[in-house]
Amino acid sequence: MRHLFLVTLCVTGAFALSGCTGSSEEEVERAVQDVMASDESNLNEIMMTVADPDEAVAYFKRASAESPDRIDYKRGLGRSLVRAKHNSEAVIVWSNVVQHPEATTDDSIELADALIRASKWDEAEKVLDGIPPTVETFKRYRLEAMVADSNKEWKNADSFYETAVGLTTKPSGVLNNWGYSKLSRGNFKEAERLFIEAIGYDRNLFTAKNNLVLARGAQRNYQMPVIDMSQIERAQLLYTMALSAIKQGDTAIGKGLLEDAIDTHPQHFEDAVRSLRALNG
Q1: Taking Cα atoms as reference points, which of 212, 204, 222, 216 lies closest to residue 261?
Q2: Which of 138, 172, 206, 256 could pair covalently with 168 via S-S, beta carbons 3.0-4.6 A apart?
Q3: Is 226 left (phi over 0), alpha (psi -120 to 50) or beta?
Q4: Where are the alpha helices (DSSP H) in 137-269?
Q5: DSSP structural state of residue 224
Q6: What's the chain's Rg over C-alpha atoms?
Q7: Who wins on pLDDT, 149 or 16?
Q8: Residue 97 CB neighbours (<10 A)
Q9: 274 CB-near residues (< 8 Å, 6+ apart)
Q10: Nearest CA among 175, 112, 183 for reference residue 143
């Protein structure tokens, strides 16, 4: 209804303009088509970003079937499939997109991203290797860092992560990935620093908070970090810290942390209760 209203309003305005200026019918039609194209572009953007992922997939599948030559619909479908976590299907769609005559290097980067999400690391590396080195974008370097990580090429990974951080104003996610890379290498102090930096950019990034607790626990530092957290988050982080302590043989400390987690959580904390029972049993 809204779509029809906009078009009707525009048609009315276009005819009014025609009456005043003597414009031809072709100019009126062109004005209507321009507004319809703009409205469609806005709808596509909404579908790709904030709409329910499965609804977006259905929308772009239908649009692609009706207009199979339009690359924008194929791109929308590829992005929506990634959002819906249908990674294998997303790989197929992006593989088709990069074969399109209007495909760009950004499409190849999206294909590499879908391949990584589908755990096809070798194929993703080949796609990235085929992109000219002059293409220097945040997403390209973030993916290069992840591939280098998977190959345990630590020096290259650090270089790519550092470059990616410098190419975005919202580096929290890539800082968290970099921190996890350091954590997996046993460089706990550096990992802790990167997780704190990630949280500084996005205080709602719970993954970085949880990873920070893991990094501290790996150093047998069982003090909760001084960061912004809700009551539920605090209970969950206490639980993570408890498991870390138990894993390292500090059972008494782990038991105390489990009890704190249960007392802190505003509702029944089943996972922590079950772990405490198992520890006592």
Answers
A1: 222
A2: 138
A3: beta
A4: 138-150, 154-165, 172-185, 188-201, 206-218, 231-247, 251-264
A5: P
A6: 26
A7: 149
A8: 22
A9: none
A10: 112
Domains of the chain with bracketed CATH = 31-124 (1.25.40.10)
Q: What's the burial of 193, exposed, middle or buried (CB within 10 Å: 0-12/13-18/19+)?
A: middle
Residue with tokens 């779509």: 3
Provide the residue type at 252 as one letter: A
Q: Is the pLDDT of residue 101 over 70?
A: yes
Of the candidates 162, 167, 226, the one whose C-alpha atom is nearest the C-alpha of residue 190 is 162
Nearest CA among 242, 277, 275 for reference residue 260: 242
- Classify burial at 177, counting beta carbons within 10 Å of its beta carbon; exposed 0-12, middle 13-18, buried 19 or more: buried
CA-to-CA distance for 158 and 174, rounded, in angstroms?
Answer: 11
193-208 pLDDT, tens digit each: 999 999 999 999 999 9
Alpha carbon of 80 to those of 47, 49, 66: distances in Å? 8, 8, 17
Return all residues near 45 (Cβ < 8 A) that are at least 6 apart.
none
Nearest to 151 by CA among 195, 174, 184: 184
Q: Would the pTM count as exceeding 0.85?
A: no
Do residues 115 and 127 touch, judged by C-beta distance below 8 A? yes
Q: Count CB atoms within 10 A of the CB of residue 131.
A: 17
CA pair distance 82, 144, nearest whole angstrom: 19
